[in-house]
Design goal:
Largest sheet: 7 strands, mixed
Radius of gyration: 26 Å
Strand content: 15-25%
Shape: globular
Number of helices: 17
Helix content: 25-40%
Strand order of the largest sheet: 3-5-1-13-10-11-12
Length: 732
């Protein structure tokens, strides 16, 4: 890494984590705690005609069996992308309706987890089944053109020039279809809720990416004031998009706690997370790419069919990314949603960007071979400083530098162009592939509160959630640098609705939102300290200044929003509603970029694919925490390897639901699957985007990995594979 702006300091919470001190949602234990378990539907669609919970109620230690008949006055909290707070608008157990297999039909609360699980298995139901569809091509699905829905108001179609005409006139044309399966996030920390009432006050402990949505969503669902709800989530324990809003179990647990008068904990088992939480929807990508004889990409048409549920339209934003990869002269993006009988899909790390870049960057590689051009050289020849979709300049774009540095570090000049031309002496097929990835630069409004004391305590409270990305370390580094205090003396309070309004943390906007407002808070504190000391700070620490002034503490509060957002956006922030700005900011457009270079080795007999080496070079603006940033990229590359070679949520169209709903059969990479991963950062601050100069990193890190692997597999074998995951049988 070159010219890093911040020192390579250890994570401020590293020692606590390795000693097991952080408490996650499922770790919470308190006096009188009841344990809960769910009984779930065994049919994919229909409604309950009879529900028998007598045997369950008779299990020793059972205190409550909650069903749709005993829920009381509860309403849906709405879909987060439809003006509500939940991952879907459908709240289980409000009626006899069954929308998908695995949906909860009863909650059992008992003195012990064993009693709750036993009793939940004794709940029986009789159903009337209805026809259902769970795959993109199944009979009974409904196709909705996104441009014909209200979604067009905030996700406009991407149309630049006349792509159909330009494609028809192109000298070189590539047309191909790429398929991406449904996938599940599988965070190690399971979805869990602890709810406890004290009079009319409700406290919820839950690992989440969106404490404010839980707070307001539960209040709306139960018909109480948000002021009477507190949500505490110091650690999410991995979210990857699955924990980005109100989950289906939270209201159920709150109702169970209210009815029993005791705190209640529910840890949703792994299979439940497959059936009762969001997931990456299945998607199909039809790409038409045209170029002139010189290799200039003059036309790109990207059509997408993506899965959604019957009850919500999960918006597609695939083409908003593919349009920004290269300097396309003409581009058309078409998004179609396919209604199926599943829970509403949602945001899984790089939700649209990973599939979109797999399709487009695979197609670009096909174009390179049709032209007889080196894949890196072709991408460099089609670089741009202007956004295809809007014609506006990018606030920064260092794709060419990512490609050049990556090629040099990887040794790309030693690559021979022809497929199957790099066989090793034992017959192993070696392939080298490249792809780029992009992710939009987004900013959420934030309010930060900074306090210093005469004892040396420094506390920064701001909206944000710790999901493993190291936001506490980035905040500590920022305040340390501003106030000239050790990073270890800075305590960051995040994920707590009592401390500051908590905006959804996702989309790689956490750092770009929290760090600039933290810098503002640091500047405000310096100004306040100048007033206290009535003169220059003269190198003294805040604690020394306060002691000299006879002050115990000093506090400041600041707020910041995305460029162009109205002041009313802070009302949305406090109401727990998404308030994101970007990637178009009036006079410019912001994206993060990455280039991945991949080596695969394919065993000649078993056809096992090994990713032996990866070099990734990232354009994410200023790197705020080098150690956690490097870790983020390596983790993203591992995710990309899993997405390319392992992960798929298997569906049986006869029965609905997901078949491989555990980590034994939902395959993810293990240590033996991972080779060398080298990471480098451009580390050029983007101060047009924000004062800290930082852009997003966590999600762009996996974008393009699958395409680079697929391109390397083609180089190794001569087989162009367009469906994920790539399996051994595809190479036999």
């Amino acid at each position: 890494m070159n010219n890093l702006s911040f020192p390579d300091t250890p994570r401020v919470d590293a020692c606590d984590k390795v000693r097991g001190r952080p408490l996650f949602g499922s770790d919470d234990v308190r006096p009188g705690l009841l344990h809960a378990a769910l009984a779930v539907s065994t049919i994919p669609k229909g409604h309950i005609v009879a529900l028998d919970s007598k045997a369950a109620s008779g299990v020793p230690g059972v205190r409550l069996v909650l069903t749709h008949e005993t829920m009381g006055a509860v309403t849906s909290s709405g879909f987060i992308m439809g003006g509500g707070y939940g991952f879907q608008s459908f709240q289980p157990m409000l009626s006899p309706a069954i929308a998908y297999r695995g949906q909860p039909i009863a909650l059992v609360a008992a003195d012990t987890l064993e009693a709750a699980v036993e009793a939940a298995h004794l709940v029986t139901a009789e159903y009337i089944e209805e026809p259902f569809s769970v795959t993109l091509d199944a009979k009974g699905t409904e196709i909705v053109h996104q441009a014909d829905t209200p979604l067009r108001n905030f996700i406009p179609e991407i149309i630049a020039g006349d792509a159909k005409k330009a494609y028809a006139e192109a000298s070189i044309r590539i047309e191909a279809t790429y398929n991406c399966p449904p996938q599940h996030q599988n965070p190690i920390e399971l979805i869990a809720t602890v709810a406890e009432w004290s009079g009319d006050k409700l406290t919820i402990h839950e690992g989440t990416q969106n404490a404010e949505a839980i707070r307001h969503g539960v209040a709306l669902g139960l018909g109480i004031s948000p002021e009477n709800v507190a949500v505490i989530s110091p650690f999410a324990g991995g979210g990857f998009g699955q924990k980005n809003s109100l989950q289906m179990q939270t209201i159920l647990v709150a109702v169970a706690s209210r009815q029993t008068g005791r705190p209640v904990k529910l840890v949703v088992p792994r299979a439940g997370a497959f059936h009762d939480a969001s997931f990456r929807p299945a998607s199909r990508h039809h790409i038409r790419l045209g170029a002139d004889k010189s290799g200039k990409m003059i036309a790109a048409i990207h059509e997408v069919d993506a899965q959604t549920s019957r009850h919500d339209l999960f918006p597609g934003e695939y083409t908003a990314t593919s349009a920004r990869l290269h300097g396309f002269s003409n581009f058309t993006g078409v998004e179609r949603l396919i209604r199926t009988d599943v829970q509403t899909p949602g945001y899984m790390r790089a939700p649209f960007e990973h599939p979109a870049c797999f399709a487009m960057e695979s197609c670009v590689d096909e174009l390179a071979y049709a032209l007889g051009r080196d894949p890196v050289e072709l991408r460099l020849a089609n670089d741009t400083t202007l956004d295809t979709a809007t014609g506006l300049p990018f606030s920064s774009r260092h794709v060419a530098e990512c490609l050049r540095r990556g090629a040099e570090r990887f040794g790309w000049t030693n690559r021979s162009m022809a497929p199957r031309s790099m066989l090793s002496s034992d017959g192993t097929e070696v392939g080298w592939g490249v792809a780029i990835g992009a992710y939009p630069g987004l900013i959420a409004p934030a309010i930060a509160h900074l306090k210093v004391t005469d004892e040396g305590e420094v506390v920064i409270s701001v909206g944000g959630h710790e999901m493993g990305q190291g936001i506490r370390t980035a905040l500590a580094n920022t305040i340390s640098r501003k106030l000239s205090v050790p990073a270890t003396s800075v305590r960051a309070v995040i994920g707590d609705t009592r401390a500051a309004p908590q905006h959804l943390t996702a989309g790689s906007w956490g750092t770009a939102s929290a760090i600039p407002v933290a810098e503002d808070a640091g500047d405000a504190m310096l100004a306040a300290l100048v007033e206290v000391t009535h003169g220059p700070l003269a190198g003294r620490t805040p604690a020394e200044i306060l002691k000299a002034a006879g002050r115990n503490s000093l506090e400041v509060e600041v707020q910041r929003k995305a460029p162009g957002q109205p002041d009313a956006i802070f009302g949305r922030l406090r109401a727990g509603l998404p308030s994101i700005g970007g990637p178009v900011f009036g006079s410019y457009v912001t994206f993060s970029y990455i280039a991945h270079f991949v080596e695969v080795r394919i065993e000649p007999n078993t056809r096992r694919i090994r990713v032996s080496r990866v070099v990734s070079v990232v354009d994410c603006g200023r790197v705020m925490s080098p150690r956690t940033a490097t870790s983020q990229v390596r983790g993203g590359v591992v995710w990309g390897i899993g997405a390319a070679l392992r992960e798929t949520s298997e569906v049986d169209p006869r029965y609905g639901g997901f078949l491989n709903a555990d980590l034994a059969e939902y395959l993810v990479p293990v240590n033996a699957d991972i080779g060398s991963i080298e990471v480098e950062f451009i580390d050029e601050p983007d101060t047009t985007f924000n004062s800290a100069g930082t852009k997003g990193l966590g999600e762009v890190s996996m974008v393009g990995v699958a395409a680079a692997i697929a391109n390397a597999v083609f180089h190794a074998t001569g087989r162009r594979l367009r469906d994920l995951p790539i399996r051994i049988e595809h190479l036999l």
